[in-house]
Q: What sequence folds into this?
């Protein structure tokens, strides 16, 4: 599967969202699903840039996006600090304004927007996030 | 992303166009903070030409809503929320934290 290397910078989020949208559009995903995929990819990439590569300059990470049978599979591989999205505490959505947590929202959205989210961290090959959205 | 702020007697109308993500959210935050810095705590955010907003933008809205509502001095409301962004706000559990309006005249008039 071809992978695209992106600089770990927020100004490349536009390109990452377009990369994912192009594949989703080519595979006839609905507008709603395309937006969901773009949002999930953005939130995941933002976390890598902000947390995995915190304080690191000139870092890059690899993104793949392709259909596997009836699902679109997005992977992101980085070599920064492990950041396991599956272990981030779910924000309390019933909390009122003053108690509402500012963090953890991106990860929560990723889990809600995608059908499956997997994370593995390996000291040799780095961190691999896999996000899957089935069609329809 | 492009932001324009219009000052009315009872509120600031902040129009945000384009895309708000981690790259552009700091500038969006700054525009919201500027209203608060001018002691304007009634804010209507017009999203009619907003294409995209990630959680970075949601966080800016939340932080400003907290600041506006402190001491009951005001409120931030949302206007013309595009359907995709509305769905994402719902998913984030944010819809009950913000009043929404379908047009700017009603929103501005609500203050």
A:
């Amino acid at each position: 599967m071809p992978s695209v290397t992106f600089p770990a910078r927020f100004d490349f989020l536009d390109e990452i969202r377009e990369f994912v949208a192009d594949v989703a559009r080519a595979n006839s995903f609905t507008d709603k699903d395309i937006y969901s995929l773009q949002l999930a990819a953005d939130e995941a990439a933002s976390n890598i840039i902000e947390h995995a590569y915190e304080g690191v300059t000139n870092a890059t990470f690899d993104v793949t996006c392709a259909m596997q049978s009836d699902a679109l599979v997005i992977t992101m591989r980085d070599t920064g600090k492990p950041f396991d999205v599956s272990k981030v505490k779910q924000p309390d959505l019933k909390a009122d304004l003053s108690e509402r947590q500012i963090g953890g929202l991106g990860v929560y959205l990723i889990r809600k927007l995608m059908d499956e989210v997997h994370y593995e961290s390996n000291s040799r090959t780095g961190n691999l996030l896999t996000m899957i959205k089935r069609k329809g | 992303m492009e932001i324009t702020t219009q000052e009315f007697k009872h509120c600031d109308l902040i129009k945000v166009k384009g895309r708000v993500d981690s790259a552009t959210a700091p500038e969006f935050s700054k525009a919201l903070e500027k209203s608060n810095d001018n002691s304007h705590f009634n804010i209507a955010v017009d999203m009619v030409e907003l294409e995209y907003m990630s959680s970075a933008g949601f966080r800016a809205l939340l932080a400003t809503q907290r600041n506006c509502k402190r001491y009951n001095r005001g409120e931030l409301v949302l206007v013309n929320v595009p359907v995709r962004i509305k769905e994402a706000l719902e998913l984030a559990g944010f819809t009950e934290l913000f009043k929404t309006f379908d047009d700017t005249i009603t929103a501005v008039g609500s203050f």
